[in-house]
Amino acid sequence: MYKIVLMRHGESQWNLENRFTGWVDVDLTEKGRKEAALAGQLLKKQGFVFDLCYTSVLKRAIRTLCIALDELDQLYLPVIKDWRLNERHYGALQGLNKKETAEKFGNEQVMIWRRSYDVPPPALSKESPMWPANQSRYRLEDPELMPLTECLKDTVKRVVPYWENEIVPKIREGKQILITAHGNSLRALIKHLDNISDADIVGLNIPTGTPLVYELDENMKPIKSYYLGDQEAIKNAMAAVAAQGKAGK
Ligand SMILES: O=C(O)[C@@H](CO)OP(=O)(O)O
């Protein structure tokens, strides 16, 4: 049996402001830092000892990992950062307020943009400074691979091969792995692990800063999975994420 831990970053400034974030590199809020520390403490209490960590190239996930590792006293660990674990690219919606967008385009349209499996949000143009190919961070990457927008299906297409080709071999070597990433890059991975249908993935929402443990069999199929922490608070946090794109109130 193998065990891995997945974790969405703690609350970011744009989570707080309820703005579509995607690949924009916003930092954690004070609350987000506390969530990351609490996650580290929970993992420590449960006796987790990791060998290798993976994260995205976005600071909210990187910082969450650092804070959690600090609490665990495992800051010595190797960390692999890869854009394939980045948040789903939100195209031209990046920076917009989710509630205001719902007021303008309707709850249903925003729900489709946020959670449908294969409808991407409106795309950026290649002139946009938000296109990753125009940013120094991605200058060595093939511009053809840099998204102008992504639906979850597109995110699955980069996250799952990364999982299969990079992470699974390390798990098979016996390494204990911690992955800190993002709401939608983790939804892409969980869809694959739990074999969730395109229709049912719409209902999956991931709370910030909460360790999610997966126990996997020899074929990397989940035996069980569970969040660490206060289960009632986690349920409420998941419902709050689902409600972020609604107009009104
Ligand atoms: O804005 C984003 O990038 C994501 C995660 O915060 O939001 P959503 O939950 O709306 O997909």
UniProtKB/TrEMBL annotation:
Substrates-to-products reaction catalysed: (2R)-2-phosphoglycerate = (2R)-3-phosphoglycerate
GO biological process, one term: gluconeogenesis
SMART domains (alphabetical): PGAM (SM00855)
Signal sequence interval, chain numbering: none
CDD domains in UniProt: HP_PGM_like
EC number: 5.4.2.11
Superkingdom field: Bacteria
Pathway: Carbohydrate degradation; glycolysis; pyruvate from D-glyceraldehyde 3-phosphate: step 3/5
A GO molecular function held by the record: phosphoglycerate mutase activity
Entries under SUPFAM superfamilies matching the protein: Phosphoglycerate mutase-like
InterPro entries: His_Pase_superF_clade-1, His_PPase_superfam, PG/BPGM_mutase_AS, Phosphogly_mut1
Function text: Catalyzes the interconversion of 2-phosphoglycerate and 3-phosphoglycerate.
Name this polypeptide is given: 2,3-bisphosphoglycerate-dependent phosphoglycerate mutase
Organism: Turicimonas muris
